[in-house]
User: What shape does this take?
Amino acid sequence: MTTSDGARDDTTERVLEQAVARETAVHGRRWAAQYGGYFNDPAVAAPFLDVIEDGLRAKAPDVLVDLGGGTGFILAELIRRGKLSPAVKLYDMDLSDRQLESLADARIRPLKSSFLEFRRDAVAAGAERLMLITRSTLHYAGLAGQKPLLRHLRGQLRPGELFIHQTACNARPEDALLVDELLERLHSEKWLPPLDSLVRLCEDAGFRVARVADAPDLAMDEATLADRYGIAPGEMADIRARLGEAYADSPRWRSTPEGFVALLGYKILVCEAA
Ligand SMILES: C[S@@+](CC[C@H](N)C(=O)[O-])C[C@H]1O[C@@H](n2cnc3c(N)ncnc32)[C@H](O)[C@@H]1O
Assistant: This one.
């Protein structure tokens, strides 16, 4: 794997591919129902869609790519809301065949690729202007993968072009610790930064963070996590006991009759290639 700055980055690629491989069982038709339908709900997506539409108005790109776009829900919603020019070419880039096979609208072109393989010349010719969007994907790259991934994406954009992402993160560092510990105990290498760190990572990669906006929390319930990460009941009980004690006072942790719910925070960042 060669990133835009020429460095090989097999570790990040391995982390990314393993994370997707673990989840293919819930991709495709089962995807819409995950986490109470969070990823298939127009009201939940509305703040992100509003910010993207502002970006489309401001920059009038020729090509719009949703990185890790899954079943194409975000692009399909942009089409449905009617503010997207029919001239804009739309790509859903994802590593999962099952996600791409379930594409929500014929106007959306599937592009099978991994984040670090994505190159602007695969979608935009010559002077065509590009905009990148993504929701809930950067954490797949893990702690060590954030810098290479952001640098690579910045390398695919020209100055002034936008990368708009809704990314799992938390304004309060202690809330980030809760979710990071939970993911670690689920044997996942995903990593969620505190918001301040995410902004700094984007700036270090060569973006100007022009705007930070709120997005709805995702409620991660025990049953969905056990299914998605393949955790046996006994191990899940240990996780529940350990985190229930450590984070008993956290407003982001709830014990319920069915188990626990942990709240995952999100922010929307408008990043302009500097
Ligand atoms: C949590 S889902 C979000 C889907 C979509 N962005 C949405 O918000 O509805 C993450 C998506 O990212 C994709 N993904 C994860 N790692 C990837 C990678 N390295 N390259 C391309 N896609 C990836 C997964 O296959 C999955 O469809």
